[in-house]
Amino acid sequence: IVLASLTLLLVPASYSSPLITEKSRDSPVPQSDTDLLEFPLNLEYLEAEFFLYGSLGQGLDKFAPNLSTRGPPPLGARVANLDPFTRDAIIQFAWQELGHLRAIKNALQGFPRPLLDLSPKSFALTKDAALGRALSPPFDPYASSLHNLIASHVIPYVGLAGYLVAGLLAVKGGQDAYALTRLHPYGIAVSEFTNRISDPRNKLGHEGIKDVYLVVPKKLGAEDQIGGNVPAGNEYSVEYTRTPEEILRIVYCCRYESITGGFYPKGADGRIAKSHLQHC
């Protein structure tokens, strides 16, 4: 409740919760707001498909075909080898993502699911880039609960100020905090792994440190008092924000938001993402 209340205070009024309600379609939404509200559909599709396939073995086309809007099915997604506790949590994440998709589509028409690459190879490339070497055997997000939780942290819930209402953003933070809490007891190897994941995301974002680590020096922890960093925040313990351009560079795994790849082989959709592809 406290987190949601603080987030409401920090989200600009023009992007606050009235944009997403059951009656949203009855009121016109300004084009600038529509573009920002439409953009996260790309991430919602990505997360929904990853969590659905990982926990239940099938995706939107099975559980909510009306939400995929006949977009191409994701590449390489499959059921993960999860322990019962982790599987239950990932199923919860999956249903939450369906709710997020419905909420956004209640406010605007949106676009069909873009082509997503959720194959082990796609995740392995991000891990190899993070560690600076090829892992052997290659990283597989579907191989175990631990691998799946690491992958759940990699799929960016990266905050974009104003692009989501406070309620959705609070749930995103809770999902990532759960993944990090479950990773924390595994010790230094996992913390080093997640730290390495954060490094390339900061570099690709081109905007300094906005993705911080599971274990940090005290000067980067809350109030300079603690080295644990679950959940992460800035010097005021407030969620970091990212622009659409930063997010595109991260999910494309590329220094330029105009060059597609990574989790989106043919690029993200929506006016903002397409505006950059025009400059290729």
TrEMBL record:
Signal peptide residues on this chain, from the entry's feature table: 1-16
Family matches, as InterPro entries: Pigment-catalase-like
Pfam families: Ferritin_2
Key words of the record: Signal
PANTHER family: DESICCATION-LIKE PROTEIN
Protein name (Swiss-Prot/TrEMBL): Desiccation-related protein PCC13-62
Protein species of origin: Populus trichocarpa
